[in-house]
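Checklist before submission:
- one chain only
- standard amino acids only
- sequence pasted in full

Submission:
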Amino acid sequence: MSTQSSATAQQGMTEQDGLPEHERRWAIVSVAIGVGMASLDTAIANTALPAMALQLNATPADSVWIVNIYQLAMVATLLPFAALGEILGYRRIAIFGLLLFTAASLACAYAWSLPTLVIARFFQGVGASAIMGVNTALLRSIYPARMLGRGLGTNALVVAVAFAVGPTTASLILSVWSWPWLFAVNVPLGLFAYFLARKVLPHTRRATHKFDALTAIYNAGAFGLLILAIGEGAHLSDAKTVALELFGALVFFILLLRRQKGHAAPMLPVDLFRRPLFTLSALTAVCTFATQSLAFVSLPFYFESVLGRSAIETGFLITPWAVLVGIMAPIAGRLSDHYPPGLLGGIGLSVLSAGMVSLILMSPDVSVFGICWRMAICGIGFGFFQAPNLRAIMSSAPPERGGSASGVVATSRLLGQASGAALVAFCFIISTQHGETLALALGAVFAAIASIASFMRLFVQQPK
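Returned file contents:
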């Protein structure tokens, strides 16, 4: 009996339905810190770009790489880390991600030039990718099945709060210290999360297939070039360059699909996309995060240029969206334990689309209250979507493919956010006077498409 138990432990397998309550709380603390840091560092770098460019003697155009390299590193490595998590265990990948993210944050703080900072940010993005790539799969092992929605709601709350407080946090730190402290503050938090993760994160069942490094390279090339092409295309860069990047992405995608053909657990999980519920949930996520990005990038310009608000006022006017997301995410998570995610998400996204339309229809002399209740409607709608959609993606994949499903969750988010930001740039290029309004209108359209995709899930069968 003891020999069998030992063998099971060595294989990293747990058959229990979630962790006991006291262990679960500490595991969630560790996961939340990692997810919070990875999400926060996406937001704070945007706010601090001017200060970093000035101190590093970099041009504004060159300094954008501080943000871009982080996103590229994440989107290129998310699915490889998710696949590796299925083989080595999600716990190991999360711990590795925390360690690398923390070390890279320290390197960012000590960077002495733009190239050194960009290199450090690349490794920070890889660490964040390892954390985010297995995050949702870990939640599936931490929470009992009956409480999974609650756990996903808590996770959505952490992401929402990190995204909301990012600009404010960056401004507060820069008002007291210089930009290196934006990264240095991650070090004590990261070390705490790392040592806590080693102690409390659960071991999970491991897959028996091997990791294919060449497939990972093809995946990185495909998604990396795709994101580059989207960004440069939106800025109307040289057409030949964009065409070459798209062609390169296509070649890598073809090589990737050919390489993984017949594999029991493909890195790009085409087998999971054959499940209608999984595909519709991923599509819902991409469209909704595109809406969020279209709104959050364009609204500061809309408030200041169209409505004549100050930069300080703009920060407060965006807050109701984030606050309501934080309030609604746990509620929606608990509801998703009892009601179909397609219904909850469809209702929430219809509300989000209506909220976006109400922002477009505001008059130039609208009151602060008039802006805030419209932003609150958007936040309610977005918050009502996130946790149920996460549950739908994870529950539509078999347990042994939890890593791949978790990777798709993070990849869908990044693809949506990158596409939304690129579309804002495109809107400003085609119309300097009405770019903000066009971006918000596109956001309303994307939310409506996401709502339709979500409601369609009510008519597809849940996989066994």
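Reviewer check: The radius of gyration is 21 Å.
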